[in-house]
Amino acid sequence: MAIPKKNARTENRAATEPAPSSKSTTGTDSALENIFPIVGIGASAGGLAAFEAFFSGMPTQTDPGMAFVLVQHLAPDHKSILTGLIQRYTRMQVFEVEDGMVVKPNCAYIIPPGRDMAFLNGSLQLLEPSAPRGQRLPIDFFFRSLAQDQRERAICIVLSGTGSDGTLGVRAIKGEGGMVMVQSPDTTEYDGMPCSAIATGLVDYQLAPAEMPAQLMAYAAHAFGRSHQGTIVPAAMAENSLKKIFILLRAQTGHDFSHYKPSTINRRIERRMAVNQIEALTDYIKFMQKTPAEVEALFRDLLIGVTNFFRDPEIFKIVEDKIIPQLFIGKSPGSAIRVWSPGCSTGEEAYSIAILLQERLEAMKKNFKVQVFATDLDAQAIATARTGLYPASISSDLSPERLARFFVSEADGSGYRIAKGIRDMLVFSEQNLIKDPPFSRLDLISCRNLLIYMSSNLQKKLIPLFHYALNPQGILFLGSSETIGDFSDLFTVLDRKAKLYQRKEDLRTDGDRSFSRFLPPMSAPVHIAAKTTLPAKLQLRELTERAIINQVTPVAILINGQGDILYLHGRTGMYLEPAPGEAGVNNILKMAREGLRRELTTTLHKTLGQDQSNRCCGLRVKTNGDYTTVNLSIHPVAAEDATKTAEQRLYLVTLEEVLPTEQLPQHLPPAITTDLNGTDIEILRLKQELRAKEEYLQTTNEELETSNEELKSSNEEMQSVNEELQSTNEELETSKEELQSVNEELATVNAELQTKVADLTLANNDMNNLLAGTGIGTVFIDHSLHILRFTPAATKIINLIHSDIGRPVGHIVSNLVGYDRLVADVRATLDTLMPIEAEVRTVEDKWYTMRIQPYRTLSNVIEGVVITFVDINTAKQMQQELQRSEERMRVALNAFPMTVFNQDKELRYTWICNTDARLFPGESILGKTDHDLLPADEAERLTAFKQRVMQNGKGDHREMATAVSGQTQIYELTVEPLYDSFGVLQGITGAAVAIVVRHH
């Protein structure tokens, strides 16, 4: 039966044990808070839109409390912009992974191009891809590492994409008790990857990407939240509840799980409770009672089979080198090699052993019959194994040589199908190992990673069962965490590491060897007094016909077109005997005795082809050393349905014994026959029969020789054609895989570029509207001084129309007055890379500030120049008006004997009008202070007065005396604080008027 095939150390971990961490996580709330789920998200073509919807649907009020690792199929030679694109849709930090990067919660990590990525001990490790470009499976690679590291805390999401990458990773994560979420196919751009994952039957949720975050957080809260960690169910209550769950499972599926290890059962139940967001075990039982689909879902979880081809390669190498050759020792060519793989799941391990056996047969160049019996409790898994169709991702588990030899690629690229030669070796069947009888006379039993999920009592019953099923010296192959326990008297250890054991004779005589417990119990016979009843009165006609049939009718067998026996009449033992091998459907062609089989086969084929009765007389059939002469007839039975083919119709075979008196040779004259005794007649008959046989054999031999020559010639031609086709097919397969991989990568690049184009279009629209809104005229010119593009506002300054794009700028007439250096200034800017700025005027008397500056790309490459024209007409008019106003004020001030000045906060003169030439003859005072112009004592008093005005923020006036040409000149000085338009102090403004002149 399909059971999660894990490493044994999983069994020693608590169901809620966290992933490895650098800090201890046992028993403290703070440690629990440092543990967070890792969500692996795989996508290929169409993944960008799914990522956008997923992160856009993330709640904004709270942090998710988990880390997201995005594995996207990327072109290895193309720089990815996925990190920047994802950052737009989430407030979490988004990183492109670097080797050894430690994963933190509430962050998103994106695989870089051309790398495989694995998760180990809380960090992301980057590796060079080992597979060819067309066979790389980065999603499976990461999911498997996540399952091995995080175990039941692992979560994976499969989004849009072609192919089947991620399918094996889904199996690995589900096998470790993790959670699987898949994008619903009807919401994808490409449904290959989601459909492949869904086909495993292991998916917990199928949702649209926007719905995933809410469900993801709800699952994490139930599976890893504080309340779930602290849930304790009393032992008695838990045992009682488990019994109820076992009853529900047995009632719906017919299978009893009470022999499984409690830890296995508990983990699966806890996982299903988390998926359905149910806290109490009693509530879950009620949910199961109301929802039969949940019983089936739990049943599927308990039967999760995680396996792959040649799992544990180093152990399979030991089997290949030591065990497989040993199976053929003492076997004569033509004998059978019998192998049993119980709990085979989807068949990968059974096929792996069959491949090893086939390789050994080819090396020995001998003919043996190989039978591999693969059984499992899971009907769906058996159905998958029977088809022999596996996802393309199995290429990571198989060498290229084995993949090419033993698998055939599907035409649509969906996966690989096992070769017919290997498939014919295997017989798959549904079997309950606990109650169904085992196979027998086996050379090898491969039961890996199944016993660890059984209780110890059941293990003690299964090991002797395997001993019973094996031939003397037969081999038992167990999983890396399984042993034979206390049964060292039944098996010899061949390789302790590989868990290979050889059967030895059982010396015990106790009753532990009874295997009747694996058979359905038989009810005790119930003795009921039989009522005395009178036989029903039969019709005389029926009695008469029955007597005639028993006396006259020959032996008859009803068969179908394949020769399968449907009904027997009469004593058929003289002509038929059971065929050797396992009992199954009885076929008349296999059961026919010596002397009957060849003619029976020929006559049946003739009847099928002609659809009419055929007869063959005088056949000598050997029975218990004696020969019986019989006549064979085959008659088509009238079909009720005329549409049935010849193989679907029924046929009646009659065998009529010929008495000695009826065995006279044909064509003998009556006179001769009257003179012959019985011995002579027999001799004549035998001679005639011998001649007929010789003629038949001669004809047959000639026909066979002719056919053989034709077949040999055809075979050589077909072999040559087949080799060419095989070579071409291999080349096409390789090219197809590479093209498919490149196509997926190009689809991803195309999606990124489409997003980039949309961004550039938006930015271009914004820039055009910005330039149009500001009214700034702009002209772009390339290295050759040709016009690249321009804005509408530029047409007011330079006479430009749309057809001027591509023309030299020197050919265009401008509306500028007094400026004819445009071409020269453009060349100067290109040569020196120095901007040029000038104020220019148009014929309409409009003023502009013209700037010519280099056009630089993001890579700092000069591609030309940009000319901008900023409208300064209003500012120019204001400047001219200000100049006229200042001139009028200066004239007025000059007419009145008053000095007016402005000083900044450091009391430096910034402006002055009507300077007294007697005080400052012939020198400029702008930029100077009173200390630079006046005697020290006067300057000190004047400076203190002005500083006081600035400190108080209020104007003041005073008289000031100073010596001028030997006289004392007295001025009336008025000072006011000077503020700008925002009310910020800029300095002072003042006026001085001469009022008195005193002579010394």
Polypeptide structure, described:
The chain is α/β, with parallel strands linked by helices and 1000 residues long. It folds into five domains: 8-230, Methylesterase CheB, C-terminal domain (Rossmann fold); 313-518, Vaccinia Virus protein VP39 (Rossmann fold, 3-Layer(aba) Sandwich), CATH 3.40.50.150; 548-659, PAS domain (Beta-Lactamase); 775-876, PAS domain (Beta-Lactamase, 2-Layer Sandwich), CATH 3.30.450; 896-999, PAS domain (Beta-Lactamase). Helix content is 38%, strand content 23%. The strands form seven sheets. It has a seven-stranded parallel beta sheet with strand order 3-5-2-1-8-9-10, sandwiched between helices. Strand 6 and strand 7 form a beta hairpin. Helix 4 (138-150) packs parallel to helix 5 (167-175), helix 9 (235-253) packs across helix 12 and helix 10 crosses helix 12 (292-302). The N and C termini lie far apart (130 Å). The model is unreliable at 1-33, 226-232 and 509-538 (pLDDT under 50).
